Amino acid sequence: ALVVLKMFSLHEEEEFAASIPPAPEDVMWKDFLANSDAQRFRELLGYALIAVLFFTFTPVVITISTFTSLDTLSQYFPAAFAKIQDNKRLTELWGGVMGSFALTFIMSLLPLLLGIIFYSCFVLKATAWLQLKIQQ
């Protein structure tokens, strides 16, 4: 009782923070056993992978949007361009949909890649915290 009284004492300058724990099936027990030296290396690796993802994301998007334009398609893939050019509806569909489809596909990969990096390289202690880490 004295320990609990000391923890919640108003005269101490320290604060005691309590939060709701995750569900028992949500706890990532392996993260509680992480070696601190190995964890520091994994965190550095995680930050490096996030930096690589950050710096390669824009060039990949630009490259994909370039290759989905009909002008570029005619230069690099003339056979595919000829098939698309023969059909007017397919030409309109390609010009209107393919660029946004490719961008949507790449954008949908971003949370997946961040989730893999966070799950593999950082201590989370609960799988629900993965979503929070991605959103931050």
Structure report:
The protein contains seven helices and no strands. The protein is mainly α and 136 residues long. The model has no long low-confidence stretch (mean pLDDT 82).
Task: Summarize the model shown.
This protein has 136 residues and is mainly alpha-helical.
Residue ranges: pLDDT <50 for 5 or more in a row? none
Mean pLDDT: 82
Fraction of residues in helices? over 70%
Q: Structural class, please? A: mainly alpha
Strand content: under 5%
Number of strands: 0
- Structural Rg: 25 Å
Span between termini? 39 Å
What is the general shape?
elongated
Helix and strand pattern: HHHHHHH
Number of helices: 7
Q: What can be said about the biggest beta sheet?
A: none
